[in-house]
């Protein structure tokens, strides 16, 4: 029999699910060590002890919340390599053509579109394999359009919608905030007219997966002059409280926020705080439901643990629980298919019932 000391070395982590409600946690660890010892000694088929422990660790996060996860060493190594050297093309579908390679489709917000490549363009003197590579590297090629060649160089990157896009319709600023990974407040401030001031804003947070919570709080702060925007609450540490600050540049015009089932994390925090601070109403569908704080632990054996270590608390003390997102003040079904965020805003308002409902609310 292998030494139970080896088993006990893993028991502190792997037996965590047994500790919940236990009056003597060390007894639970002893119990875990005994179970592993019996498996090690008597199982009909010998199983490597490391496999038993890994399965136990995977079970630990299964007993927690959907955003916690344990990654064995080989899985975490693979994920890190994928992240560091992501293989991708230029954001275009290329098909063989008598002219060389024809661009048949462009990925929205992709690198090719960003440098002016159009569907129907012909790429000459290149092979399809030339366009697959590692993110952050450059691919050079020649595009022919209307018989005129043009040399291009594209930096391979993941396609990502700009954080902020704006338009004005009937005196209302329609501000699409796609995510909070990049600065939001500064570009939005530059886009909002001051003379004449808008009669309202529609803040479109649909499909917003989140990002930097501090940037979401900065956005809320532009609309409110006092009050708690969000509290970060973790076990064993003092709460981090983000409060609004009064400024002469604060926006006082009415605001309506559009949300849906893909509005998550920092997007939900911004929407929930604006409503609970009495600055906005929500229109759309119930949000995703993610108000948790994650921390990454990396271990000497190459494994890693993504653990929920706290929660974001909204101004009224509400926590956005998993699967229980924010319910809008006015429930309106979203349009079928992907959101149209690139057509003229007047066209979108005629085809998007949620956007139309927001315009109607600001007209009351």
Features:
six-stranded mixed sheet, single chain, 2-enoyl-CoA Hydratase, Chain A, domain 1, flat, 18 strands
Strand order of the largest sheet: 9-10-11-14-15-18
Shape summary: flat
- The total domain count is 3
CATH architecture of the largest domain: Alpha-Beta Complex
State the low-pLDDT regions, or none. Answer: 1-22
CATH topology of the largest domain: 2-enoyl-CoA Hydratase, Chain A, domain 1
- The percent range for strand residues is 25-35%
Q: Give the ordered list of helices and strands.
A: HHHEHEEEHEEEEEEHEHEEEHEEEEHH
Give the termini separation: 78 Å
Q: Give a quick account of the main beta sheet: strands, pairing sense, barrel closure.
A: 6 strands, mixed
Using the CA coordinates, give the radius of gyration.
Answer: 26 Å
Question: What's the β-strand tally?
Answer: 18
Count of separate DSSP helical elements: 10
Mean of pLDDT: 87
**Helical amount:** 25-40%
Structural class: alpha+beta
CATH top-level class of the largest domain: Alpha Beta
Supply the CATH superfamily name of the largest domain.
Answer: 2-enoyl-CoA Hydratase, Chain A, domain 1
């Amino acid at each position: 029999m292998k030494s139970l000391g080896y088993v006990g070395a893993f028991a502190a982590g792997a037996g965590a699910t047994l500790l919940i409600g236990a009056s003597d946690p060390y007894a639970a660890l002893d119990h875990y060590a005994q179970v592993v010892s019996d498996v090690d000694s008597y199982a009909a088929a010998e199983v490597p002890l490391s496999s038993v422990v890994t399965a136990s660790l995977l079970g630990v996060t299964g007993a927690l919340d959907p955003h916690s996860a344990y990654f064995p060493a080989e899985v975490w190594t693979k994920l890190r390599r994928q992240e560091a050297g992501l293989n991708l093309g230029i954001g275009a579908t290329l098909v063989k053509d008598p002219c060389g390679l024809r661009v048949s489709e462009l990925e929205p917000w992709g690198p090719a579109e960003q440098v002016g490549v159009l569907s129907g363009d012909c790429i000459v003197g290149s092979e399809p394999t030339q366009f697959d590579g590692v993110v952050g590297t450059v691919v050079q090629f020649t595009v022919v359009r209307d018989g005129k060649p043009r040399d291009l160089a594209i930096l391979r990157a993941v396609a990502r919608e700009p954080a902020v896009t704006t338009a004005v319709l009937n005196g209302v600023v329609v501000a699409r905030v796609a995510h909070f990974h990049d600065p939001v407040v500064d570009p939005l401030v530059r886009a909002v007219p001051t003379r004449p001031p808008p009669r309202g804003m529609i803040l479109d947070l649909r499909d917003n997966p989140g990002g930097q919570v501090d940037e979401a709080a900065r956005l809320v702060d532009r609309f409110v002059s006092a009050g708690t925007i969000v509290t970060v609450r973790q076990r064993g540490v003092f709460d981090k409280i983000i409060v609004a600050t009064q400024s002469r540049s604060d926006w006082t015009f009415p605001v309506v926020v559009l949300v849906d089932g893909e509005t998550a994390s920092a997007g939900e925090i911004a929407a929930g705080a604006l409503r609970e601070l009495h600055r906005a109403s929500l229109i759309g569908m119930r949000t995703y439901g993610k108000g948790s704080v994650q921390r990454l632990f990396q271990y000497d054996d190459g494994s890693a643990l993504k653990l929920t270590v706290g929660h974001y608390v909204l101004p009224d003390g509400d926590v956005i629980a998993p699967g229980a997102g924010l319910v809008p003040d006015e429930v309106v079904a979203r349009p079928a298919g992907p959101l149209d965020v690139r057509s003229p805003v007047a066209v979108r308002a005629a085809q998007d019932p949620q956007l139309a409902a927001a315009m109607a609310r600001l007209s009351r």
